[in-house]
Structures are given as structure tokens and as C-alpha cells.
Write a structure and sequence with these properties.
The structure is a single chain. This protein has 305 residues and is mostly helical. It has one domain (2-303): Transferase(Phosphotransferase), domain 1 (Orthogonal Bundle), CATH 1.10.510. Helix content is 45%, strand content 7%. It has 9 helices and 6 strands, in the order ββααββαααααββαα. A hairpin with a 2-residue loop joins strand 5 (227-230) and strand 6. Helix 2 packs antiparallel against helix 6 (156-176) and helix 6 packs antiparallel against helix 7 (206-215). 31% of the residues are buried. The mean pLDDT is 87.
Length: 305
């Protein structure tokens, strides 16, 4: 047992050992050595999209933790998805509609937040997921729908749209040959850090670029638009602040998160109102379906076989 996100959790999974490692580390190495081939990129992309579609249609489950760390390669260079605990992915990878709910959850369950503020957000969270308190217990009960409250609050259609968003970010990493969507991110470091920031493009074919842009509709700026990491130091990249010091770094981050919380609440207010009126579009950002993503990928693969 360990402290995991301020909660007790079981650590570790029993699975086959895949010695080639994860795409997080494999992709930049292939790019650096000129061995990142379009045929492999297409194969992995189609395998990922097919796996997501299979989980949704055949297994009736969602996959909320789609990132390169959770994709390893078999000895035959096929992708293998791991980590099906369903706790969710970091906010920098997740769709904005998932983050809108996740930010509410984080405030509602943080004991360092003043009681009045926490109760306000907890009440809202309970409206979204009535049994959210039971999912926040120490006991590992492995609920059927997982622990990802921000995903449980979504309908099946909304979940698919959120999965497509994550898939789009992953496709960008695969075709650009990088470890993650952000360079020098505050929240994560990589063995080989990217020289690109999503959605900058250098190597991705135009057809795939258009697909990725459609998959990631609704994307928002990240904290990296205000504060970046330079090696082990945080630096300002917000023109509002002329002097770079600790207090301004904190203030830039504070302003960013205040704006994010406001945008999240406005989005959820709109969702609530339109759901009550029967007008809510589950694919609010008009992203393609998993079927449509697969169709584009397969057509491109056939064209360039």
C-alpha cells in the first residue's frame, strides 16, 4: 500500500513483461536515429483506435488513461495497452470536458481547501455523480465503472468524444516522434524531452494533421502557456509579468487556474441547462467518432501502402 493522490491504493499489476518498453521512450529514439517509419506509425495508430473501439463496443467500458506510458510494444512491434484501473489521466492529457469535472472534484476533496468552498464544490460533484463519496474511500473495491468520477459523470457518447480527444493527442506524439504533448512541462519530465509543443507540427502528414485537429477540438491552453520549466527551474512566459521572480510565477499560475475553474463552471452550467431542456449535444465539440477516425487512418494506410 502507499499514499496515492492522498488516498491509499494498491500499487502494481501482474502482466507479461514487454522488454521493448513503452512508446514514451521508444518514439524519440526512433526519431533521433531516423528509424521512425510511416508503416509503423500507421499500424500503431490503427491498433490503438481499434482497441478503443473494441473496449467500447464489446466490453462496454471506457479507457480514461490513454497516454504513451501505458502503451508498450510486443516483441512483434504490436502495441499493448496496460493499466485498466480506470482512475483517469493527468489533466494535461485529458479532454477539456473531463477536466471541467475533475477540477470540481479536486477542490471538493482537498482537505486544504476552506470548508465553505469545499462544501460548495462537493454539492456540485454529488449532483454530477450521486455516489461520489463511496468512490472516495480507502477500501479497494474495484467498482464496475472504475474510480474516475470525472468520467463516470459523462454519458457513453461524451466518453467516446473524450477518448477521441486523448487519441488525437497520442496520434500527434506518434507522428511527431515525441514522448509527450508538451516540452519542458511543469508537471512531468521525460528522458528525451520534446522540442515541440502540441499542436506544433514538423513531420505529421497533412491528412493526419487535419484528423488530429478534428480529434482535439475544444482544446485549451495549458499551464505551460504561463509557466514553463527550464531544467529544474520554473520560468515565466506570460508577457503580463515583466519581472521574473517566485511571487510572479505563483501569481501567473494562480491566475491561470482561476480562469480554468471559471471556464469549467461555465461549461458545466451550460451542460446542465441544455440537458434539462433536452438540447444537449453529447459531442459538444464536434469531434469525429472512433469509427470515423479509423476510416481516415485505414484509407491513408491503403493509399500509402
Amino acid at each position: 500500500m502507499c499514499q496515492f493522490g492522498a488516498k491509499r491504493a494498491v500499487v502494481g499489476f501482474t502482466t507479461f513483461y514487454h522488454s521493448r518498453g513503452s512508446l514514451r521512450d521508444i518514439l524519440p529514439q526512433l526519431r533521433i536515429h531516423g528509424r521512425l517509419r510511416l508503416s509503423d506509425q500507421m499500424k500503431w495508430s490503427i491498433q490503438l483506435a481499434t482497441a478503443l473501439e473494441h473496449l467500447r463496443i464489446s466490453s462496454k467500458i471506457y479507457y480514461p488513461d490513454l497516454r504513451l506510458d501505458n502503451i508498450v510494444l510486443s516483441d512483434k512491434s504490436d502495441i499493448v495497452m496496460v493499466d485498466f484501473e480506470q482512475r483517469g489521466v493527468w489533466c494535461e492529457f485529458a479532454a477539456p470536458e473531463v477536466n471541467a469535472i475533475e477540477y470540481i472534484r479536486l477542490i471538493a476533496t482537498d482537505e486544504n481547501v476552506p470548508d465553505g468552498v469545499r462544501e460548495k464544490y462537493l454539492a456540485r460533484l454529488r449532483k454530477l455523480v450521486p455516489d461520489c463519496d463511496a468512490l472516495d474511500q480507502d477500501a479497494y473495491i474495484n467498482p464496475e465503472q472504475g474510480y474516475a468520477i470525472s468520467w463516470i459523470a459523462l454519458s457513453a457518447g461524451e466518453q467516446e468524444a473524450a477518448e477521441v480527444y486523448m487519441l488525437g493527442r497520442l496520434l500527434w506524439c506518434i507522428f511527431e516522434g515525441v514522448s509527450g504533448p508538451q516540452k519542458a512541462a511543469v508537471w512531468q519530465s521525460y528522458r528525451w524531452e520534446s522540442h515541440l509543443e502540441f499542436p506544433e507540427y514538423e513531420r505529421t502528414p497533412p491528412t493526419i494533421r487535419a484528423l488530429i485537429d478534428r480529434c482535439t477540438r475544444g482544446r485549451r491552453d495549458t499551464l505551460g502557456s504561463k509557466v514553463k520549466r527550464q531544467r529544474s527551474k520554473l520560468i515565466l512566459c506570460d508577457p503580463e509579468f515583466r519581472e521574473e521572480n517566485e511571487e510572479n510565477v505563483k501569481e501567473a499560475a494562480r491566475q491561470f487556474w482561476l480562469a480554468e475553474i471559471e471556464a469549467s463552471e461555465n461549461f458545466l452550467d451550460l451542460r446542465d441547462a441544455q440537458r434539462r431542456q433536452g438540447e444537449w449535444n453529447e459531442n459538444f465539440f464536434d469531434r469525429p467518432s472512433l469509427d470515423e477516425v479509423l476510416a481516415v487512418l485505414r484509407a491513408y494506410q491503403t493509399e500509402h501502402a
